[in-house]
Amino acid sequence: MRKEELLYFKLLKTDIEKKYKEEYPECEIKITSWRQQEIKRFRDLLIKQVGGQISEKWFYTHIRTENNEKLPRIDTLDLLCRFINFENWENYLILKNEDSVITKSDKKATKFTNYIAQKKTLIISIVVILLGLIFFSKSELFAQAEYRFYFIDADTDEPIKNTKIEIILLHANQSPELILCDSNASFLYKKSQKKISFIVNAQYYKPDTITRILEKKKKSEKIKLTRDDYALLVHIFSSENIKNRDKNINLLNEIFDDNAKIIQIDKYKRGIEIYNKQEFILKMTMPTNAVKNIEVVETEYINSKIIMMRFVIGN
User: Which of 193, 209, 225 is the last residue of a domain?
Assistant: First the structure.
């Protein structure tokens, strides 16, 4: 991939940040440092303004990365360009090139980098090798340390058992890494870096993003996860024969936002049916048990109510 196109993608991220801050001027951080709140708001703006969406994992992979090594798919680039009022990615490249938005210093920097790459001397190579050996030796010393994270219930302070827990390990200059916790509701970190950032997802618990500076003297830590009570209630309603239909309807009305989108997926996590709030409540409370044994996969909230829920029908 040509370096100029990657520079334009970097510029596109800056333009997206400016457009976002028109809607949320209180945001003062760069797009490459956005947290869950900013990412969720941006995803909502995409759906509202251009009718498309990206996943949180995709955002961490392509937007939070300072120096991208490859471009995202063209259909996603087209979506992002429409968000900032361009027709598509090709149109964005043409108009930005005509306006000469990429500065001369950027182009000179690219030429200089290529020149250095072609004209490396023996002395520079030796220095790089020596520095690499020094860094490697120090990294190896720290890599011997192990750090374990345990996940507990925020209400009971008890370990979270019989629940699938996924860790999305976030790296500075590469794609996120998916890790499944062991049977002890924990995972062991053995890397040489002293800083770790990860997203933890546990069924019927709210996801959380954790960042820690690891201390050599400290070998483990307990992370409290908050229960997703509404998701658990939906699961219970679908799994038990509760006779008070009116009471259930009222309670489900309280759980879901009026504009909620409820998506049924298959075992491959592909969407197969979409319900609005009233359609879903009707199916949940029908005597025929049209929707039962629901396993909630993902929830998103607005004003303490579910605005989006993805679920699969269990056995």
Answer: 225
Residue 138 is assigned to a structural domain of this protein: no
Tell me which of 63, 90, 110 is where a domain ends.
Answer: 110
Q: Which of 309, 304, 300, 310 is nearest to 40 (CA)?
A: 300
Residue-wise pLDDT tens digits, 43-75: 999 999 999 899 999 999 999 888 888 889 999
CB 312 within 8 A of CB 238: no
Report the sign of the C-alpha dihedral through residues 123, 127, 132, 133, in that order. Answer: positive
For the chain, what is the mean pLDDT? 84
Q: Are residues 262 and 220 in the same domain?
A: no
Cα–Cα distance measured from residue 80 to residue 248, given in angstroms and rounded to the nearest whole number: 41
For 137, counting Cβ atoms within 10 Å of its Cβ (0-12 exposed, 13-18 middle, 19+ buried), the class is exposed
Q: What is the predicted pLDDT for the residue at 243? A: 63
- For residue 101, the model assigns a pLDDT of 47
**What is the SS3 string spanning 253-295?**
HHHEEEEEEEEEECCCCCEEEEECHHHHHHHHHCCCCCCCCEE
Domain coverage including residue 154: 143-225
In a domain, 95, yes or no: yes
Confidence of residue 242 (pLDDT cuts 50, 70, 90): low
- The CATH number that applies at residue 184 is 2.60.40.1120
Segments of the chain assigned E as strands: 147-153, 165-170, 177-180, 186-189, 195-202, 208-213, 220-225, 256-265, 271-275, 294-302, 305-313
Residue 46 · residue 79 · CB < 8 Å: yes
Q: What share of the chain is helix, strand, coil (3-state, %, to 5)?
A: 45, 25, 35
Pairing of strands 256-265, 220-225: unpaired
Look at residue 304 and tell me if it is in a domain: yes
Structure tokens at 81: 């360009």
Q: Is the pLDDT of residue 115 over 60?
A: no
Query: In terms of domains, do 87 and 148 share one?
Result: no
Residue 116 lies in a domain: no
